[in-house]
Specification:
There is one protein chain. By secondary structure, the protein is an alpha/beta fold. The chain has a domain of 95 residues: Orthogonal Bundle (Helicase, Ruva Protein, domain 3). The protein has 15 helices and 9 strands. The strands form 3 sheets. The chain has a 5-stranded parallel beta sheet with strand order 2-5-8-1-9. Helix 1 packs across helix 2, helix 1 runs antiparallel to helix 3 and helix 2 crosses helix 12. The longest helix has 17 residues.
Length: 314
């Protein structure tokens, strides 16, 4: 599948963010654009890859460049849901229980190696990701705004991993893969400065107010009737095709459209074109087709090519 790149104008905050991120995450401009688009669309990001390719570094970097309150949850097999959402502890001084919020109450939450925890602990994120709130012991508390979950995941064949349930996968707007850097970029990485030191020097480029304004701009992007029909035809194809056991849900269609609108904003447009949908199709839908026979034997690009070749462009 051919990558569709944006044409962000020089001097814009989004361009500055991409330039700063590209100095640390080398040779991954397209993946960085997808990560930014995911945040602008108020979605959550799943980064799946082998250890050591920059997944955690990318999450740290987004938090610093966007000036977001940041927390990290290291997922392990003995992690409990209360370790994520928080717990009420009896306070003798006030003779009452006091709630101690967990790391989920941050603007950017890194769920590191999420598939090393049990499904019970993984599910502690569901309510916060979908409804922007957490219910503990019958009391509902909102999470901060904006709220963005970046989860990293190791390949499922590695020792000590648990597959993410379909309900959990469906809460991620996008799934991306970083992959190994190209030879030239990897040599630059080996010869360059330590990435942790570079991260410490990064300063916020966007304020929270500016980020919220950009997210509102995404919501105001226009999707014409032909674009809506194009998106719908993609959903229908996955449901009718014998290649897929389960087709895409309406939520997947809404996510695809949100991702396309964010891609349009990156391209400095207030309307969606078919190329926007094509650019985010793989990251937005292939993880939602997990469990199908086709997805077990082919990669993201092959699945996208099948869909795009089968659904005509309006």
């Amino acid at each position: 599948m051919k990558l569709v790149k944006t044409a962000m104008g020089p001097g814009t905050p989004l361009t500055a963010i991409l330039d700063a991120a590209s100095e640390i995450i080398l040779g991954k401009e397209h993946q960085l654009q997808l990560a930014i688009a995911c945040l602008l669309a108020k979605g959550h990001l799943l980064i799946e890859d082998v250890p050591g390719v920059g997944k955690t570094t990318l999450a740290h970097l987004l938090g610093r460049l966007l000036g977001l309150q940041y927390s990290r949850i290291q997922y392990t097999s003995d992690l409990l849901p209360a370790d994520v959402v928080g717990v009420s502890i009896f306070d003798r001084r006030s003779d009452s229980f006091r709630f101690h919020p967990g790391p989920i109450f941050a603007q950017l939450v890194l769920a590191d190696e999420i598939n090393r925890a049990t499904p019970k602990t993984q599910s502690a994120l569901l309510e916060a990701m979908e409804e922007r709130q957490v219910t503990v012991e019958g009391e509902t508390r909102p999470v901060p705004e904006p709220f963005f979950v970046v989860a990293t995941q190791n390949p499922i064949h590695q020792i000590g991993t648990f597959p993410l349930p379909e309900s959990q996968l469906d809460r991620f707007l996008m799934r991306i893969h970083l992959g190994y850097p190209a030879a030239e970029q990897e040599r630059d990485l080996l010869a360059g400065e330590d990435r942790r030191r570079m991260l410490e020097r990064q300063r916020p480029i966007l304020s929270v107010a500016e980020l919220l304004a950009l997210q509102q701009r995404v919501e105001d992007v226009t999707a014409t009737r032909p674009i809506i029909e194009y998106c719908h035809e993609i959903l229908l194809f996955t449901r009718r095709s014998e290649q897929f056991t389960h087709g895409l849900s309406p939520r997947a269609g809404l996510g695809l459209l949100k991702g396309a609108k964010a891609w349009a904003v990156l391209d400095n447009r207030d309307y969606v074109i078919p190329e926007d949908i094509q650019a985010v199709l793989g990251p937005c839908v292939t993880h939602r087709l997990a469990g199908n026979e086709l997805t077990e034997t082919t990669g993201q690009d092959e699945i996208c090519n099948l869909i795009l070749e089968s659904v005509p462009v309006p």
